[in-house]
Amino acid sequence: MLSEELVDLSRLQFAITAMYHFLFVPLTIGMTWILVIMESAYVMTGKTIYKDMTRFWGKLFGINFALGVTTGITMEFQFGTNWAYYSHYVGDIFGAPLAIEGLMAFFLESTFIGLFFFGWDRLSRKQHLLVTILMAVGTNLSALWILIANGWMQNPVGAEFSYVTMRMEMVDFWAVLFNPDAQAKFVHTVSAGYVTGAMFVLSISAFYLLRGRNVDFARKSFRIAAAFGFASICSVIVLGDESGYTVGEAQQTKLAAMEAMWETEPAPAGFNIIAIPNEAEMKNDFAIEIPWVMGIIGTRSLDKQIPGIKEIREKNRERILSGQIAVGALEKLRKNPADAETKALFEQHVADLGFGLLLKKYVVDVGTATPEIIEKAVADTIPRVAPLFWTFRLMVAFGFLMLALFGAALWYSVKGNFAEKRWLLHSALWMLPIPWISCELGWFVAEYGRQPWTIYGVLPTHMSVSTLSVGNLYGSLAGFIGFYTLLLVVEMYLMVRFAKQGPGSLGTGRYDNETAHAHA
Amino acid sequence: MIFDYPTLKLIWWLLVGVLLVGFAIMDGHDMGVGTLLPFVGKDDVERRVVINTVGPHWDGNQVWFITGGGAIFAAWPLVYATAFSGFYWAMLAVLWALFFRPVGFDYRSKIANPTWRNTWDWGLFVGGAVPPLIFGVAFGNLFQGVPFSFADNLMSTYTGSFWALLNPFALLCGVVSTAMITFHGAVYLMHRTEGAIQRRTQVAMLAFGSLLLATFSVAGIWLWQGIDGFAIVSAVDPAALPNPLDKEVIRQPGAWLANYGKYPLTMALPALAYAGTAAAMLLAVNGATLAAFVASSLAIVGVIGTAGVSLFPFIMPSSTDLRASLTVWDSVSSHLTLNIMLWATLIFMPIIIAYTGWAYKVMAGKVTAAYIRENDHAAY
């Protein structure tokens, strides 16, 4: 049995490195399209200011992108270094989208990012625009493949367990590809990236306007960000609702925990705006509920029920008992593959194999699990309610706050007097961190809500780790924290410095705060 | 079209080889340039010239590494799992060394302070020198077997330490690998520079080329005389569903050279390593730097090909539980996954090569001090 400390440290390291990586990814995803919009304006109008906009925002984009690349490599290494059993157990399915991501998307993005920065004088205007578009396409395709992999962890379709190879194997690639969870996640996540890019440009442009610097440059940037941001935040909210629907089908547990819905209510269920969940007694000490809303979001109907936590636990108890038989049969089958009777028994229970593996957290031989252990495993199948309940609500609240900001920004952009609305500019500036916080909250809801599984219903988290010593984990965790802190300090220093200086850093002689040309 | 399982297993051994060779040729020359940077560039402008020879391309080239890792994950999941977790600290050292590259390239020129720039130069050196060294050391350990075993559910456990990896033969392989990559980077740098930088790089090119020839030879003799190879003695069914515990393996003196006797054509690979290196040195000195780059790329095919053929069919032998050794037959993905990945590779690889070639064509020509001065704000 693997020590709980090892499992917790492995999770902590993955969470830290993934959330850190995700500080840079959304901005990259969003900025690529904003750069495409700005450069298209340059190619269509021939006005130099649009080229300067592409180059200046591109410069900030580059500072961010460098850390996105740096921290992305960690993610690819880490499945192997720290989640070895996971890699073996599901690599047959999970590895393919990661490899295809490299072939189809990351090569495209990374090759053309070089030409984006270095090709201005060597390419025609249209050629350079094509380069920028290909870079954006590559970035977004990259997100698609990563989320196909991630979607499969939430909803493992198109695969079967093989007792000979002792792992999950792909049986239907198209099912993995068109996994509804993956598709909904993709649109929701890239839209969140677009919002992040838009907020970045909006806030920094507002900063210039408040200071009265680079006014024309800032006005044009603000308008683009307002329009792009408004469209994107609408997409995030509408498609977030779409992910709510698919979770409803594939992962009712996450939904119930996120909603602190202990009982199965008569359809359509109500939505708890605020509640104080009480895990021990499995009830809410206090709740304000809007009737019907949850049922409609979760099932797209008025008559289908959404199971509450207590009902899900009962179902899971059945599945754990059946899984217990599956694990026992599998262990016999591994020793004697010719045993037809055991094979038949195994095949009868194989769908619950993952639930049986939950018992491995407590006993080596799952056949000896006592009723108390089975109760513990049943309790494990529900992630902790309070953290999910609150992070989800905070994310949604931030979403609507940003909708209000981008709505106002777009309204006054159309009217043309946004630059005089100092309250709007101040709000835009102060709300700069909101999309990053929302993205991290969304990541938390999606991944913490999947616990106790790495692959929902298939492989428990506690079995997925590498058999390393706890000392190794403390060492590597210290290394990551050290490197990442240092990198963040350097990145923020450069980002703030160049954002404050503004387009003057291009050294064109057309803007405030010019850098002297001989700055080398 | 769908190939049968044994053929696909073999194709994937070749394809992983192609990806590793592609990584060594493309990302390798960037890394070699990084290793040489603090030595061949004497002032800031010279160093910027050196960096900008790879500036527009390093990021795309690094994807060979990422895709190689992804392909091993998808095609040989058990190898990915066992090697990455077993070589834990070595992998983290590679990873942390690679951290210096994106930020080194992108952040260095953003501030004119000499200490700032000098720090990133050494960062780029670390990012260029450490990964090839460690990959060489890892290969050196594969030949000696790695201490890992599997539980009944195929959960792997590694019982060695990081320091045990640093044994003499493995360190020699590390030198072979670093010499090869630095040599290759030097040839590339000669192609893209002129004047004093080119002259200094030529000295390094000749030194690392000679070092490569010498250490490659010593490693070969050592492998033949001093290290017991691995051999499968039970019947192999290449069509079987992969199960690494279902075979019998022994250790045997000279077994690592057995394939050259069985398939004499494979001797072309070590020959190519020698011929490619010698030809690249000769061509580069005579100014035919592009042809020299092709020759040093062929030398890389020769060196990595030699390592691969010597190990075949083993990928990662186990020194503690011989039968658990991972081979091309029993550590692979399912038939369907191998087939899908083959098609993905066949479709996208030519496209990647085409646009990478275009990117090099757009940026072709010598990088000069005048270019750096004209592009002070845009160049690295």
Automatic annotation (TrEMBL), chain A:
The keyword Aminoacyl-tRNA synthetase does not apply. It is found in: Cell inner membrane. It is a multi-pass membrane protein. GO terms for cellular component: cytochrome complex; plasma membrane. Pfam families: Cyt_bd_oxida_I. Its main location: membrane. The keyword Transmembrane helix applies. Keywords: Cell inner membrane, Cell membrane, Electron transport, Heme, Iron, Membrane, Metal-binding, Transmembrane, Transmembrane helix, Transport. GO terms for biological process: aerobic electron transport chain. This is Cytochrome d terminal oxidase subunit 1. It comes from Azonexus hydrophilus.
Automatic annotation (TrEMBL), chain B:
It comes from the Bacteria. Keywords: Cell membrane, Electron transport, Heme, Iron, Membrane, Metal-binding, Transmembrane, Transmembrane helix, Transport. Its main location: membrane. The chain crosses the membrane at residues 7-26, 78-99, 120-143, 163-191, 203-224, 263-285, 292-316, 336-358. InterPro entries: Cyt-d_oxidase_su2 (IPR003317). One of its GO terms (cellular component) is plasma membrane. The keyword Flavoprotein does not apply. It is found in: Cell membrane. GO terms for biological process: aerobic electron transport chain. It is a multi-pass membrane protein. One of its GO terms (molecular function) is oxidoreductase activity, acting on diphenols and related substances as donors, oxygen as acceptor. Belongs to the cytochrome ubiquinol oxidase subunit 2 family. This is Cytochrome d ubiquinol oxidase subunit II. It comes from Azonexus hydrophilus.
